[in-house]
Amino acid sequence: MKRLSGQRVRQVVIAVVAIIGSLGIGLLLALLAGVFHPKVTGDGVAVRREVPTSGEVVTALRIRRPRFESAVGAIEPIHKSSVAAKILAKVLEVNATAGQRVDAGDVLVRLDDQDLQSRLRQAEAQSDAATAEAKQARADFGRAQRLLEENAISQSEYETAATAVQTRDAELQRVARAIDESKVMLDYATLRAPYNGVVVDKQVQQGDTVIPGQTLLTLYDPDHMQLVANVRESLANKLQIGQVVAAKLESMDEQCSATVREVVPQADLGSRSFQVKVSGPCPPGIYSGMFGRILLPLEDEELTVIPVAAVRQIGQLTVVEVVELGELVRRNVQLGRTIDEGAEVLAGIQPGEQVWVPATVDAATAEATSAEATSAAGAAR
Questions:
Q1: From CA 379, how far away is CA 381, in angstroms rounded?
Q2: Which of 180, 324, 325, 362 is the one with CA 20 to 30 A from 164?
């Protein structure tokens, strides 16, 4: 029994010592962490200081701005043409390369036309023969008329002579149409630019043999371009042909006015969007395929803005010096976008409140350092 009581006493002593040791270590850690030292001034009031004379006091404004939704798209030419062959022939000349500007009527490609020239000469020879035969038939018909008046020939012979005249005239017309056809076919051997434009693709070389319908060159009119974008259904239904909207070219950082030319009356099944085409004055340096946006108007929005120079970044905090009762008070704020009118304030400042804008960054830094030193001194006391 005595041995059991001694063991129990030792266990109790060990437990008490462990508890006391744990408490001591906890107090020591709390002391090192500064738990027993105040972090702020005892009255809990924000540090105030006088408004410096070096800066400017500005009122936070409430403004209304138009709001837009952008629809992305690409630049495409309004007029784009493929120059194709209409005959089977060999390519003799190619007078255009990709990127070359051409004028309407310029010869782009020449094809071998020897057989077409031969067909034209044959048709012209047939025309000469038909003309001679028609002349002879009219002369025979004239003699037949005189003989019929003298009762020297029968009525049937007279009618035969008249029919010969009609036959030769018809043959003469047929040959004339054959000549026209030969000239048209001969024109197919010379491919010309349909309008002033820029060649964007050349798909044939000198010496190639082309077939009817084969594309030889592709060109477009660089002076008449359009921006084609996909617009969501709810906005596309509100657009009208001729309506003026804003368009922006990202790579050129240029924004201009454009006119709605066409709203394709068919929605994309995947995105439920409509294809909208707008056009306007083309700025220099615009090319097909460039990225662009259409800015579609929405309802106006109201923003609270302050000067960008009034905002300071301290660590992870965004602060602004606010004038309250003639003194400066530092206040945390949450900002949004930076626009032409200033910095958008989402939270922390109400319209009509006054903020201090330092004259220079150095002046603001000096003032902040002084305020922090004063705050630290007050906390130490």
A1: 5
A2: 180
